[in-house]
Structures are given as structure tokens and as C-alpha cells.
Amino acid sequence: MTPEDEFCLDVAGYLVVRGVLTGEEVAACNEAIDRVSKRDRMLEWESPWCDPFVRLNEHPILTGYLDELCYLGYQLDRPPRLLDEEVAPAEPLGGGGEPRNWSGAYYCGNDARFTLGVRAIWALEDVAEGDGGFSLVPCSHKSFVETPSDVLDGRDDMGVTVQPALEAGDLVLTVATLLQGMRPWKGKAKRLLSTGYISRLVRRSNEAPADDPEGPPQWVDEMTPEQRVILGVDRPNPAPIVYSDGKRTWVGGEPGTYHPTTMIRDPECQIDEKEFYFWDLNGYLLVRNVMDEAWLAAANEAIDACADLIVKGGDISHGTKRLAGTAPSSLSGLFELPSPHAEPFRRMIANPALVERLNWMSGSGFVVDAARAIIYEKGTAGHGVHSGPYPGSARSIYAMQNGRTYCETINVAWQLRDVGAGDGGFFGIAGSHKTNHPVPEGVRSLEDERGLLRHVEMKAGDLVIFMGSAQIHGAYPWQNEIPRRAVIFNYVSRNLEKPPKRS
Predict the structure, then answer these.
(1) What is the gyration radius of the CA atoms in the chain, in angstroms?
(2) Is the separation of the CB atoms in 374 and 328 below 8 Å?
(3) Which parts of 124-218 are beta strand (E)?
(4) Nearest residue to 36 (alpha-carbon basis) of 28, 55, 24
(5) Average of pLDDT values for 42-64?
(6) Largest CA distance in the chain
(7) Residue 24 backbone class (left: φ over 0; alpha: ψ -120 to 50; beta: rest)
(8) pLDDT at 404
(9) Is the sign of the CA dihedral 410, 414, 420, 425 positive or negative?
(10) Dist CA 380 CA 482 (whole Å)
(11) CA angle 137, 259, 278 (to 5 degrees)
(12) Cβ neighbours around 405 below 10 Å, total
């Protein structure tokens, strides 16, 4: 795997490997499906119709990835099958990082990676963007927060769901616990073939090819139902639940998972659960319509009136060719501008909509580190890829524990003008606040960024809150004839040294 492969899988939880199959290999699979007229268990079909799928299962590119991904070897878990042609509108996605499922999970640390479950999706037809079908939520393999039900069933996906555009012969590899599934097809259903693999360390699903067990020893017949379940006799998945009140045990209810917790939801916590999920998943949050028209007008008028205080900066592109341009302009000392021009910026310091969110993002005690207005004319250079979680740096820490998030530095960008799709400006690498990999050169240079960079469209009056040091981010060169205007606040938590000067 290349460094870009490693980084993409760690951050997003999936890879798209282009052009793995030849046209002849794709045609052979489709012909076999047409002849047999079945949708699953291809490896059990009679020869020659099983042969194309045997070759898929043994394809050197696939097995090469599996050898690197699956710790201590891999095994087939879910035999090949075509994904559904008909999908109910509210069919929920499956997976996600909460609750923990280590039988298919991903972990990376100490220069070692443990991918205990991998799903392979083969495209046997082209699937264009917007066609529907196989969909996933990037970064969700590391989510610490339960997925909102609206995201699961598609009623409100919050913009987090991606439907990969594929060409026949492409291969998608996902971490098994990545939130993924099917959305209704928008037109004709396309042929996508799914196969599941797991590490030899973990338990296989009920879909796995059956072993040839010798059966339990005869003495097991003397055991109680509770003892039989805990001995793993006829171990189904999910298993029956063994309950206990500390005095007796019993088997009860439907098979499933019972996992008590000391934590309960607090309805008085003033946290929007969807925002909480989005923040933990992506590392940023867009809050709409915080500033009204009068406030926006006052802020823009203040910048116009203080044009003589605007200064040109240096190169912020970090030498990235695709971000090259002219030097950016900024206005500092916002809280000390002559009256009445400081007032619209002072209103931002402790704005209720902002403080409400900073309290649950970082905890109370945060302070302003710096504040400035940025003014980018058309052609202003972008900001090179920077920041990210670095071991030993208190500023770049993000953690989630006991229902609380801990972020030590938070940036807030107040938008004084609209930011459209092709305008440029802020981008972040969603999920990068949890990565254990350094940024590879292909991503840093934007030459091979694998679709990880997420540009955020905004309206004047919106604000975007993002992890200032934990999330990898940057900005595209400004392309709009109307200059970009935003006010950037940097906040630090109560745990960091109080800055000597705030302006």
C-alpha cells in the first residue's frame, strides 16, 4: 500500500481502487450471472460459471491488499453476492464505530494496523454519481458517538453520506465497521458484487461457509441452558442473552446484545445530538444564520472604514503549486478599532450560539488566543495543508470520553460574505483529527488527495467551527471576483497557557 492508501484508509475507512478488472473479466462475471440466474453463493456454482468468481476471490490486487490489511492472515467470511436491486426507502445503514464491534474493527497505533474485517465491493457495471445504491459514511469507523436514526435511514443524512461513483472493474475496500449499506436506486439497478473477509483472529458470521464440526461432547447434554450458551454450544450469531441479578442466571428474550452502562443521556445538557455526532465524525461544524443583516453590514463597513490598517501577509501556500497566488490581506486589532467599528467584532467574542457549542466541545474556561479579519481578493493564494494530531502536542489533542469531547484548540470563522462551490476558501480533511498517520506527500501537495479534502460552502452570517490544531485543514485559492471576507477567532482550552496578548 502507498502512503496515500494508508492515510486514506485510516482517515476515511475505505479505498477505491480503480480499474482492477479488465473488460473481459467483467464480462465473464456478468455472463455467468445471466446464465445461472442466481444472486449469491457464486463460489458454489458449477464450473465454468463459478470460475470468474474464484478468480476474483484470488485476484492478486485484492489478496495483496488483504494480506496487508488483515492482521495475522485473512479468511472468507461472507461469500460473494450481488447487492440488492430493490431497496426500501428507509433501509438503515449498518456499522459505525459506536457501539464497538471488534470482530470487524480497525485500529492503528504504534506503527501497526489491525483491520479485523474488510468488505470488497466489485463494480460489474458503471455507477454514476447520483445513481443511488451502495453508500457509506466516511470516517464513521472511528466515530465515538451513536449514529442518529435519521442518518441511518436516510431521512436526514446531514450531508455525511457518500455514494461512490464507479466504473466497471473498480474495487471498493471498506473497513467492515464503516457505516455502509444501500440506498434506493434512482433508475436501473447496477450490478455490484459484495464479499466479506475477516482476520483469522476473529469470529465468523453466520454467513460464513460452514465448518465441519465434530459436535459437542456427550456430557454437554447434562448442562443447563445458561451453561450451554456460555460454553458456546451451537454458538449462533447473535447469541441468546444470559442475564444475572447477582443471585441467579437465566436465558431470556430474543438473541442479541446486552451490555449495561453507567451512562445515561441527559435531556437537559443543551447539546444537539446531530451536531455532537457531526463534530466527532468530521472535526468541524457549520452553524447557519448566526449574524443578521445589520450585524453583517456593520462588520463589512468597519473593514471598509479601516482599510488603511489592512496589511499584506507572506506566502501561506507552503510551496504547494495548486495553491499558489498573491499574498493574503488581513486586519488585526479588531477589538481596539475606533468606535463604532470594534463593536461588531466584540459581539463575536461571547456570542450565545458560539459559547453554547464551545462549552460542550472544549469545556468551560476557554479564552480567545487571537482574532483577525481576512480579506482575499481574487487570485489570493490558498493556505497549505497544515495541522493534525501530533503525539506529545497538547494543542492538537482531541478526545471523547464519558460522553464528553475534549478539544484543546478551536478555530471559528465568521463568514461576512458567501462562499460558493467554486470560490475557494476553507477546506478540511474530515476525520483527520483521529488519524495515526502523517500527511503523505500526495495529499499535502493536492496531487493525490483521494477526495479527502472537503470544501465547505457557506452563506454570509454563517460560522464554521473547526478543530484548530487537531484537524488537518487549509484553504483553496480565492476565485470569486467578490473578495472573501471572514473573521477568524482562535480559542484555547482552560488546559493551555493563557496567551499574553489577545487582539
Answers:
(1) 26
(2) yes
(3) 133-136, 171-175, 180-183, 192-199
(4) 28
(5) 96
(6) 91
(7) alpha
(8) 92
(9) negative
(10) 12
(11) 25
(12) 19
Closest of 470, 385, 473 to residue 436, by C-alpha = 470
Instruction: Return the DSSP state at 396.
Output: G
Q: What is the dihedral of CA 53, 55, 56, 61, to 10 degrees?
A: 180
Question: Are 455 and 427 a contacting pair, CB within 8 Å?
Answer: yes
Query: Cell numbers of 183, please?
Result: 440506498
Cell digits of residue 478: 480565492
CA distances (Å), origin 113, targets 75, 392, 437, 453: 17, 21, 11, 23
The Cα–Cα gap between 424 and 475 comes to: 7
pLDDT tens string 153-208: 999 989 999 999 999 999 999 999 999 999 999 989 999 999 999 998 888 876 65
What tens digit of pLDDT does each residue of 414-424 get? 999 999 999 99
Asked if residue 454 lies in contact with residue 430, where contact means CB atoms within 8 angstroms, the answer is yes
The single residue listed with the C-alpha cell 488527495 is 449
Q: How far apart are the first and last CA of the chain?
A: 46
Neighbours of 278 (CB within 10 A): 21
Q: Which residue has cell 499574553?
A: 500
Nearby residues of 388 by Cβ (< 8 Å), 6 or more positions away = 396, 432, 433, 435, 438, 439, 469, 470, 471, 472
Domains and CATH numbers, the chain: 3-199 (2.60.120.620), 273-492 (2.60.120.620)
DSSP 411: E
**What CA–CA distance (Å, rounded) separates 349 from 455?**
25
H-helix or E-strand spanning residue 340: none
Q: Count the neighbouring beta carbons within 10 Å of the beta carbon of residue 313.
A: 13
Q: Which amino acid is at 162?
A: V
Alpha helices in 13-58 (DSSP H): 23-36, 51-57
Closest by CA to 177, choosing from 149, 205, 210, is 205
HSE (side-chain half, CA atoms, 13 Å) at 86: 0
Q: What is the pTM of this model?
A: 0.92
Distances (CA, A) of 355 to 200, 334, 465: 48, 19, 11
In sequence order, the 6+-apart residues with CB closer than 8 A to the CB of 27 are none
Helix (H) or strand (E) holding 226: helix 225-231
Q: For 94-108, 186-200, 402-416, which range has the lowest pLDDT when averaged over its residues?
A: 94-108
